[in-house]
Amino acid sequence: MNLYQDIHTAQVQGKSLLAILIDPDKFVTEYAFAKAYLEKIPSQATHFLVGGSSNASQHIEAVVHILKELSTLPVMLFPGDYTQITPEADGILFLSLLSGRNPEYLIGQQVKGASSIQKSNLEVIPTGYILIDGGKKTAVQRVSNTAPMPQNDIPAIVSTALAGQYLGKKCIYLEAGSGAQKPVSLAIIKAVREAITIPLLVGGGIRSEQVMQDVYDAGATMVVIGTAFEEDTWNAL
Length: 237
Ligand code: 1GP
Prior knowledge:
Layout: H1 3-13, E1 17-22, H2 31-39, E2 47-50, H3 60-70, E3 75-77, E4 91-97, H4 103-118, E5 123-131, H5 139-144, H6 154-166, E6 171-175, H7 186-195, E7 200-203, H8 209-218, E8 222-225, H9 227-230
Parallel strand pairs: 1-2, 1-8, 2-3, 3-4, 4-5, 5-6, 6-7, 7-8
Bound molecules: SN-glycerol-1-phosphate.
SN-glycerol-1-phosphate binds next to strand 8 and helix 9.
């Protein structure tokens, strides 16, 4: 398995990837629950992301374990902090919160997690993480104590994404926040897509097939969806 290679190939070939975000705090590691959860996920899903902004979860390892047992999709960690790193997964989005100026989420957590990553077989995918205003205060904003970037400041968002690429990040993730009222705008996605050459991930507030397709058409290689499946509101609007 080469996770990054697959993401990059999807970008080059214009294929669309769909990552289902599992928040361990909202996932019960019982066979019946997990099986029912997996049954409602669209067949075009290609990856699982596992992680959350709250560090209260003690059972990430069990979540990854049951996903691996019930599905063949690759599992990537999407850690809210370094305690969420577990060697059971296939890879990790090694995030740096580039939209904020809190050193703890730019480099502090990464230093704390580095040695446990070294001891694992996790594939590390360096990812520039950009929090964009999704219309309500989200967990990322609260936990990281950083402000999201306003949606209308497209030049600043583009510059941040470009800086991430020049720093050597292998992906850029545009994040409106879990449960966002409004997803990242198509204009932002298009502008970032035109500026960078690395794969673009987009998530936060995407709740329907139509919006997902628009986000792909604007230039996302991978769309990340969590809340709509947690709350059974996919395509409900
Ligand atoms: C959050 O981008 C992800 O980190 C997914 O957001 O839960 O709103 O789908 P939703």
